[in-house]
Amino acid sequence: MTAGSLERYDTELTNPGLVILEMEATSKEDATAQLAAKLFEQGRVSDLEGFLRHVNAREHQMATGLPGGIGLPHARSDYVTETSIAVGITRFGYSLDFGAVDGPASVILLIATPASSFSEHLEVLATLARSLFKENFRESLRRAHDQEVIAELINSTLVFFDH
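Above: the chain sequence. Below: its structure as tokens.
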């Protein structure tokens, strides 16, 4: 992307339309389904049910909770058209068990990558996890209360990433 060019939503990993604030979810599956629906609405996922099957299968293999109240469900899937991240920040009093040893999650990031993009998937996952291990980054996400700001925080942490 050249300096001064307009950034378009469809070239970014996430955007304000992929952020759910004040999320009320009854389970990690419900939260994942709400976030996946956002990806589907933007055409980033071609088959919602198929994609959710892949995410839930991955979730059954290993818990995706990170310390500090983070849920990081993810899947590589034939139903993903471009690498994307949907973000949910739960409403006060709501938290979801993603299997982290220190307790439930209030920030959920759903990472979707095309099935063929193995190295890309690992790179996004690793980079995002590194940022999420920093308390100030987690707190910035929680306190933002603004979809634009949250999308920018996520995109800026993955600024190296060109897909």
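Residues 118-132 form the longest helix (15 residues).
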